[in-house]
Design brief:
The N terminus is likely disordered. Helix 3 links the parallel strand 3 and strand 4. The strands form 2 sheets. This protein has a 7-stranded mixed beta sheet. It has a two-stranded antiparallel ribbon with strand order 1-8. By secondary structure, it is an alpha/beta fold. It contains 10 helices and 9 strands.
């Protein structure tokens, strides 16, 4: 829309604005928003998805860091419904404050590729108030999230996201759908936080530390990478060979290791 024609995408915010109407409609169809649902958009940018969501729901919360985009966005959406814009960094934003009405949040966003992983980890803290998340991410990040043990892309992100969410890669998007065009392919992913955890993790902070250590140096065996957290005989006691590398372990293996280790670990 003409209100945005003067806005130049800012590199420091990782801005790439979606403009392809076909892609936008496909995303909306995947989300399938309804008027009684609580939708929250992260980084609405120039409002390509925002306007379509508002047409479906009549009300929307949005978290936008770039102050220069807020007024034009409010103007272009004024006739479509109630848009509440929070000028805030999604990495620091408390999403639980939006769920005080008791309705689970449905999060949507074209996440800045330079900080997408930290945002995903931040959002895991709010999994209990989130119904689902539909994000546009770098295709490589979606591949990593959905990867299984033994693949090159399997790592910390795979294990941590799969511990809390069901992950579904929906479809890929080429660079031409954006202005400016990114140098990478993108993909849409659907994340559904588990209402009942698929695995019981006794200490989530310890689990995160263990997974991070295991993958910090991928070439190292578990005996070496986990040396500061547990002994080789503990790894063996969990039914796992200490000479394996982290990428060979399933999510269930990591949970078993963590639960065993945090029972016997000296308190930090």
């Amino acid at each position: 829309m003409s209100t945005h024609s003067n806005h130049k995408a800012k590199k420091r915010f990782g801005q790439n604005f979606l403009h392809d109407p076909g892609v936008i409609q496909r995303i909306i169809a995947c989300i399938h928003p309804k008027s009684d649902e609580h939708l929250v958009e992260i980084g609405p940018g120039q409002g390509a998805i925002t306007r379509e969501l508002l047409k479906c729901t009549g009300r929307l919360d949005a978290v936008e860091l770039d102050r220069d985009l807020i007024h034009p966005l409010a103007v272009s959406c004024a006739d479509l419904g109630e848009l509440n814009i929070y000028n805030s960094d999604a990495l620091k934003f408390d999403f639980s404050q939006l769920a005080l009405d008791g309705r689970p949040l449905r999060l949507v966003g074209n996440l800045p590729y330079n900080i997408s992983t930290p945002i995903l980890f931040h959002l895991l803290q709010y999994a209990d108030v989130i119904r689902d998340m539909h994000f546009m991410l770098q295709k490589e990040v979606v591949d990593r999230m959905a990867a299984g043990p033994g693949s090159k892309t399997y790592g910390r992100l795979s294990v941590m996201m799969q511990a809390w969410c069901q992950i579904e890669a929906l479809f890929e998007i080429g660079p031409g759908a954006f202005k400016p065009a990114p140098k990478v392919d993108s993909a849409i992913v659907r994340l559904i936080p588990y209402t009942e955890p698929s695995h019981t993790i006794d200490d989530t902070v310890y689990f995160s530390r263990l997974v991070t250590s295991a993958f910090a140096q991928r070439r190292k065996t578990l005996r070496n990478s986990l040396g500061k957290l547990m002994h080789a005989d503990q790894i063996t006691a969990a039914g796992i060979d200490p000479s394996l590398r982290a990428e060979r372990l399933s999510l269930a293996d990591f949970v078993r290791l963590s639960n065993l280790a945090c029972k016997t670990a000296p308190s930090a």
